[in-house]
Amino acid sequence: QVQLVESGGGLVQAGGSLRLSCAASGSISSINRMAWYRQAPGKQRELVAGITSGGSTDYADSMKGRFTISRDNAKNTVYLQMNSLKPEDTAVYYCRFDTYWGQGTQVTVSS
Questions:
Q1: Which of 66, 32, 30 shows the shortest CA–CA distance to 48?
Q2: Are the C-beta atoms of 93 and 34 separated by less than 8 Å?
Q3: Average pLDDT over residues 27-49
Q4: Which of 19, 30, 63, 64 is the most exposed place for a label (fewest CB within 10 A)?
Q5: Angstrom distance (rounded) from CA 66 to CA 84
Q6: How far apart (Å, rounded) are the C-alpha atoms in residues 47 and 63?
Q7: CA 12 to CA 51: how far, in whole Å?
Q8: pLDDT tens, 52-91?
Q9: Phi and psi dihedrals of 11, rounded to 5?
Q10: How far is CA 63 from CA 3, 20, 67, 74, 84, in A?
Q11: Which residue spans within 16-59 are E strands per DSSP?
């Protein structure tokens, strides 16, 4: 079993930055891919960025150049650095380790 706890969400003005963290506990040695997703009100959950155990990353097109995913294996933590935030980035952000999901953290970007 894997437990995931996100943190770092909040309210920020457009153009600002936030860094989300996802700390994992439990049996994560076999986890290969970690990712961030987001879900805005009335919309489907969408992939934001992913990172493999080998460090390969991928991003949704709208996040490229603004968001950076990284991981600290020693801390069992994945991060999402979000810069140049826009009001349309407002959503609940979830981390995912293979089939395990966190509870989500709210990000609100004001115009």
A1: 66
A2: no
A3: 92
A4: 30
A5: 6
A6: 10
A7: 25
A8: 988 999 999 989 999 999 998 888 899 999 999 999 999 9
A9: -105, 130
A10: 26, 14, 5, 26, 10
A11: 18-26, 33-39, 46-52, 57-59
Say if CB 69 and CB 79 are below 8 A apart: yes
Residue for token pair 């986890």: 31
Q: Note the residue count of the chain.
A: 111
Question: At residue 27, does pLDDT exceed 80?
Answer: no
From the list 84, 83, 80, the residue with the least C-alpha distance to 102 is 80
Please choose, from the candidates 42, 49, 47, 39, the residue with its C-alpha nearest in 3D space to the C-alpha of residue 80: 49
The pLDDT of 23-47, averaged and rounded, is 91
Closest CA to 32 of 7, 58, 50: 50
